Amino acid sequence: MTSENETSPSQTPLLDQIIADLETGRQEALTQTLLATHPAEVASLLESLPPEQRSDLWEAVPVAQESEVLSFLHDEARTTIVDEMDPGELVAAAGSMAPEDLAEFIDELPEDLTSNLLLALDTDHRKRLDSVLNYEEGSAGRLMSTDVISVRKDVTIAVVMRWLRRHESLPPHTDSLMVIDDEGDYLGKLDVSDVLTSNPATLVEAVMQPEAATVRADLSEHDVATLFERRDLISVAVLDTSGKLLGRITIDDIVDVIREESDRTLLRSAGLNEEEDMYAPVLPSARRRGLWLGINLITVFAAAWVIGRFEEALDQIVALAVLMPIVASMGGIAGSQTLTLTIRGLALNQIASANVRWLTIKELLVGAVNGVVWALVVSLVTYLWFGEPGIAIIIGTALILNLLAAALSGIAIPLLLNRWGIDPALSGAVILTTVTDIIGFLSFLGLATLFLI
Hints:
Elements: H1 11-24, H2 27-35, H3 39-47, H4 51-60, H5 63-72, H6 75-82, H7 87-95, H8 99-106, H9 111-120, H10 123-133, H11 140-143, E1 150-151, H12 157-165, E2 176-180, E3 186-191, H13 192-197, H14 204-207, E4 214-216, H15 221-231, E5 235-239, E6 245-250, H16 251-268, H17 282-308, H18 311-316, H19 318-347, H20 356-386, H21 389-419, H22 424-452
Parallel strand pairs: 1-2, 4-5
Antiparallel strand pairs: 2-3, 5-6
Helix pairs in contact: 3-5, 5-7, 7-9, 8-10, 15-16, 17-22, 19-20, 19-21, 19-22, 20-21, 21-22
């Protein structure tokens, strides 16, 4: 999926205008507005409309824009559009997509349409598509563009300039040319700035960068994004296992990856799918969200069961019922802080087996310091409120224990989930909350039962 670097004004006034035109049936005005709007903005407008209005707006999208708009749509929203398109329209739109966008799109098409589409592509386009489809989704091979300008190291800058002038246009975001040998093996890159400023008689070999960063086609897109971030890259060459040049990845592709990962983390923390359509039908949306409500309900019952084991203590000392949410809540907040930092560390590849022990000890010490400080505060408030030194000491002790448990859980839970192949952003918070609730209630009510009753 491609993206643009240019900024655009707020979409809200444009959305209001589009909705007004749809409601009044001003088809010609809609078409003119869409022609003046970037395809990425058109895709955003489509995703901002309920199903019926989305269908009406799609009918107004100019045919020349359809392929680009489809490439910008998220999966679920795109599926609703594709279901309404006739086969001929689908083949025409898909046939003009870039291979990397088409590879993502073609997986969503019915098998018969896929066959027709592949037959409709010209030989060169089909070959470039096949080279992308050979790689797993989420890999550098799927992310790369095969539209690359390459040169030989033994030619002069003057020859390179003549070669570039033969092109009507350069591939988007061309900051460098790839240098290869006669066998297609990658040798380095040649910055366009060097082409423009070097002596025309200079050989490419003299000004190219043989040590420029490269990535293998099977590298994950997350790792590619990390490389771009650390080295401030604009583009990078993609190689196969033997070192042959396959394509390139540019910064606009990485911006998409970073945005999608950010959206995924935010939505999964609430148990939502990052591709979920805001205007999807009620029943599918309810079913998806209901699953995590059910999981949360189980954890709540687990905490309630622990409280139920101390019913006698709660009946005898009313202050326990008033104060027990404090311990659980403080543990939950402290644990979520550690959990967030750990998930971030995993995402940035900053956590390895060699530093886990140090990180665990550090977080336990942080939990201990905060536990002692806030235990003193809570104990003092409790004593002034109820005048019971025993309850004040017990809630302080329980608070320290729960903050230590929260710190340990905040480290251990995401590490274990990650090792088991489960996204910690998706389920870590649910598990952590259960642990801190149970430990908080168990320590506070258990200590109260042992020493006050």
